[in-house]
Design brief:
This protein is of the alpha/beta class and 224 residues long. It has a single domain, classed as 3-Layer(aba) Sandwich (Rossmann fold), CATH 3.40.50. It contains 6 helices and 9 strands; from the N terminus they run ααββαβαβαββαβββ.
């Protein structure tokens, strides 16, 4: 069960979230569960104080350590493509600020997230606690190796661009599961949906459009 901070008399950001949701609607986001997650998730808790006044802009924002919190529309596209229905076990590669982790927590039963930068992992854990989100676990480590202890996963979301799908992530994907990853060279990728067909090893790749993400670093990604 998810526990989260909802809109209320003391929530001064509720109106900003409503406007963000309307922006996402006008840009073509139709999944009602995804829109509800954006309406209820306090993005201002996941950004530095210096940019908190911009928390609900449809824009990427810096979060330190050379990283950014992604544009909400980009995250909404990701989440729509995963087609989550609330019962899934999800693996996220790249916790970052923790905001997308929080969105996933609103859409799935449990979320396991791997972050390679210790400062980001710790900050994300603090923000998730402040947002009263309890169905998330964060691991400090190499995301290209996944998190085998809790596999298989119904859905895997990779928040950085890699040259290929890391083999450990394929191994940890459940039959019928969906894996979303930007694939290509540094700085220019194709957002790709990889689906495990049935109980076998067959994979179906569906390109979803161009993307530009930070490089996926690790044993099965780019070199640092």
């Amino acid at each position: 069960m998810v526990s989260r901070r909802l809109s209320g008399p003391g929530d001064t950001f509720a109106g900003y979230r409503v406007r963000l949701v309307e922006t996402l609607r006008t840009k073509g986001i139709r999944d009602l569960a995804v829109l509800k997650a954006f309406a209820e998730t306090p993005r201002h808790l996941f950004v530095p104080d210096a940019v908190r006044h911009r928390a609900y802009e449809d824009a990427a924002l810096p979060i330190g350590k050379g990283q950014t919190i992604s544009q909400p529309y980009t995250q909404a596209r990701y989440l729509e493509a995963l087609r989550l229905r609330g019962r899934e076990r999800v693996l996220e590669i790249g916790t970052g600020s923790g905001y997308q982790t929080a969105l996933l927590a609103a859409l799935a039963a449990t979320v396991f997230s791997v972050e390679r930068v210790e400062a980001l992992a710790l900050a994300a854990q603090r923000a998730l606690r402040e947002a009263l989100i309890t169905n998330v676990s964060v691991l400090l480590g190499d995301g290209t190796l996944g998190w085998s202890a809790y596999a298989p996963y119904d859905a895997i979301l990779v928040t950085a661009g890699g040259p290929d799908v890391p083999p450990p992530l394929v191994e940890q994907l459940a039959p019928g599961g969906r894996l979303l990853i930007p694939l290509g060279v540094r700085g220019a990728q194709t957002l790709t949906l990889v689906e495990r067909v049935g109980a076998g090893a067959e994979l179906r790749h569906t390109p979803l459009g161009t993307a530009r993400f930070v490089p996926l670093l690790g044993e099965h990604g780019f070199d640092a």
